[in-house]
Design a protein that fits this description.
There is one protein chain. The chain has 259 residues and is α/β, with parallel strands linked by helices. It has one domain: Rossmann fold (3-Layer(aba) Sandwich). The chain has seven helices and 13 strands. The strands form three sheets. Strands 4-1-5-6-13-12-11-8-9 form a nine-stranded mixed β-sheet, with helices on both faces. It has a two-stranded antiparallel ribbon with strand order 2-3. Strand 2 and strand 3 form a beta hairpin.
């Protein structure tokens, strides 16, 4: 059976501080190929190179990856400050309208970390620039030192709504996750349902209310060890099933609602 084409949103990097590249973490491609059973296709997130219509036509679903640059606060009506960090306006210009188009069409996507934040902003929500500075919040950022295993280690619990889409995917209402983010949801968009929280109240799992397709997004990084992790694996498997349905011709009126 032909594999669904899953677009993986790429990020801009400089090799040797000089040579610009569009890149994606290999763990994203591995999760797509080995767990979602899709064909990974790296997308250069630049409106000078691709259009939303091109991507919707070429792909059956999308992984909205994490990335060091943050969504520009102008996208949710706020001024940029030093705390907001670096930006990637080209990625903003592609991914935010792509999210809205996928929601309307029922075309599946899985949001991860920055991708989680993009889903909220695309649907009218806002972000805090620095979670760890809020009263009562923990530091959700990646540890500055250590091995990859140590940086991506499970660090806190996420509690999801009983009977909600994440409960159905995970088969339980409390799961352990890694955490490698600085920003987080301030106000959810009007259709954003916060379905999971960290112990400090930070939103960690969302979906779009009344969307006809798969719109799950998480603030952690499930692509890490996705083949073996008991939380990551069912999430990518569920996403893969949604992309196969789309590739097979299933469209909004035929897809199961997530809300």
């Amino acid at each position: 059976m032909k594999r669904p084409v899953i677009g993986i949103i790429g990020n801009v990097h400089l090799l040797n501080d000089q040579y610009p590249v569009h890149a994606g973490g290999s763990m994203n491609s591995c999760a797509v190929a080995h767990v979602a059973h899709g064909l990974p296709l790296l997308i250069p997130a630049d409106p000078n190179l691709v259009s939303v219509d091109d991507l919707l036509e070429a792909c059956d679903g999308f992984v909205l990856t994490g990335g060091r640059p943050n969504v520009h606060p102008e996208e949710y009506g706020e001024a940029a400050t030093e705390k907001h960090g670096a930006f990637d306006r080209a990625r903003d210009a592609i991914v935010l309208p792509l999210v809205r188009a996928c929601v309307e069409r029922g075309q599946p996507f899985l949001g991860i970390c920055r991708g989680f934040q993009e889903v909220n902003v695309a649907m009218g929500g806002t972000l805090y620039p620095e979670i760890r500075e809020l009263p009562g919040r923990m530091n959700h950022r990646m540890p500055p030192d250590g091995t990859m295993e140590e940086k991506f280690a499970l660090r806190h619990e996420v509690t999801v709504t009983e009977g909600g889409p994440f409960h159905r995917v995970f088969g339980k209402t409390a799961v352990m996750t890694n955490t490698l983010h600085g920003q987080g949801i301030k106000a959810p968009g009007p259709r954003i349902v916060i379905d999971g929280y960290a112990p400090d109240g930070t939103p960690e799992a969302i979906y779009v209310k009344d969307a006809p397709g798969f719109t799950l997004a998480v603030q952690w990084h499930p692509e890490w060890d996705a083949e073996n992790d008991p939380v990551s694996r069912p999430l990518f498997e569920a996403f893969g099933e949604a992309t196969r349905a789309w590739a097979g011709g299933a469209r909004p009126e035929m897809l199961k609602r997530t809300g």
